[in-house]
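Attaching the record inline, Q. Sequence:
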Amino acid sequence: MALGLKSVKPMLLAAVLAAANSAAAGEAAKPGVAIELSAAEPAGEACKLSFVVQNAHAADIGKAVYETVLFDARGQVARLTLLDFQDLPAGRLRVRQFQFPQACEGISRVLINGADTCAGEGLPEGACSRGLTLSSKVMELAG
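Structure, as predicted:
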């Protein structure tokens, strides 16, 4: 599943979301985790990505770490990393920010490979992966 970036600068390529996103408005939230790329901002020579995360499970997630891949402007893998979204309380929004050493214009896509760590009492098996929905406010979406 992929989240792409679209910077304010026109040089950055519009990217593709490689999975279906969120449920239609008004539909009840299904158990799972929703990750939305909310902003991509320059931070000096670096790029700061802001994510809004929602845990729609009935139980808290004590620790959620996702294996993540950043692609460069040519579409090649630039960085494979683990993003620690920390604790995700049930039914609450959380904002998490991560800074990467390359400029935002140099990032064309962000791929969430899957959950590396998902811990918490009372969670169903695969709680951080099953029902995972991805979306972005800083890109054009395509299915």
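The radius of gyration is 15 Å. The longest strand covers residues 77-88.

More tomorrow.
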